[in-house]
Design goal:
L-arginine/glycine Amidinotransferase, Chain A, DDAH-like, hydrolase, three-stranded mixed beta sheet, amino acid binding
């Protein structure tokens, strides 16, 4: 049996969502975007979390920052300690300061802004025991050492090699966090990683769920799990079946409009771990 754990999330409404530039292979400014549909899909995701018993806070979106909806890229919070973000793309750089102010305004005082490029939970995935840290397209390798120093947790570096999976959270997510008696369980897409990183994942997580290409291609690995319920894109049907066989409860959501900018459920969801 799987047991859910109440979570605390920070999200940003896609009031100014658009695809006006290209900073990843998913983005094509020539493809029309429906802002109302994006807002409806985001609101359904937020209400899904609340229905599952989780707390959802919201940050006010800012004009001129269409990717601010992807809140996961703007901070990593472990034990109430906040490591902010430093974006590689100039178009997103201003987001980091808005999120820093939100944390200050909500009582967080242990906040560090990085000196190296660090796209937060886009490339940092907490397993409950160690921080898996992606690099290859966005986050600097040197940011991994900075995260270990700031957050005080062990960091394991993983290299991404497929530009479609430009952030770690597009190719891997945690299903159940590590405990005193068991390692974390996760799902990932092996082909997104370098050969050495695949071997690391195989050694650390031999019982991980390995997703296939169609499920990865709909950003099915950009999921959010509370230890029982797995919120993931509706198109990731085979992955959902695999998870159900393991006792998890898949919760499919429609994020097709947000995917036009390369985002899914996790991209929209920054987890606050107090």
């Amino acid at each position: 049996m799987r047991f859910p754990t109440p979570r605390h999330y920070l999200m940003c409404p896609p009031r100014y969502f658009a695809v006006d530039y290209t900073i990843n292979p998913w983005m094509d400014p020539s493809v029309p975007v429906d802002p109302e549909l994006a807002m409806a899909q985001w609101a359904a995701l937020r209400e899904t979390y609340r229905r599952l018993g989780h707390t959802v806070d919201e940050i006010e979106p800012q004009p001129g920052l269409p990717d601010m909806v992807f809140a996961a890229n703007s901070g990593t919070v472990i034990d109430g300690r906040v490591l902010g973000a430093r974006f590689r793309a100039a178009q997103r750089a201003a987001e980091a300061e808005h999120f820093r102010r939100w944390f200050l305004d909500h009582g967080y005082r242990d906040i560090t802004m990085p000196t190296r490029i660090n796209e937060a939970e886009g490339d940092f995935v907490w397993t409950g025991r160690e921080l898996l840290a992606g690099t290859g397209f966005r986050t600097d390798p040197e940011a991994h050492a900075e995260a270990q120093e700031v957050l005080g947790v062990p960091v394991v570096s993983l290299r991404l090699t497929d530009p479609r999976y430009y952030h770690l959270d597009t190719a891997l997510f945690v299903l159940s966090e590590a405990s005193d008696t068991a390692p974390a369980q996760l799902a990932y897409y092996p082909e997104a990683f370098s050969p050495g990183s695949r071997r690391v994942l195989e050694r650390m997580f031999p019982h991980a769920v390995r997703a296939d290409t169609p499920d990865a291609a709909c950003l099915g690995l950009n999921g959010v799990c509370d230890g029982c319920h797995v919120v993931l894109p509706a198109e990731a049907e085979r992955l959902a079946d695999q998870l159900a066989e393991l006792g998890y409860e898949p919760v499919p959501v429609d994020v097709s409009e947000l995917r036009k900018a390369g985002g899914g459920p996790k991209c929209c969801t920054l987890e606050i771990r107090k």
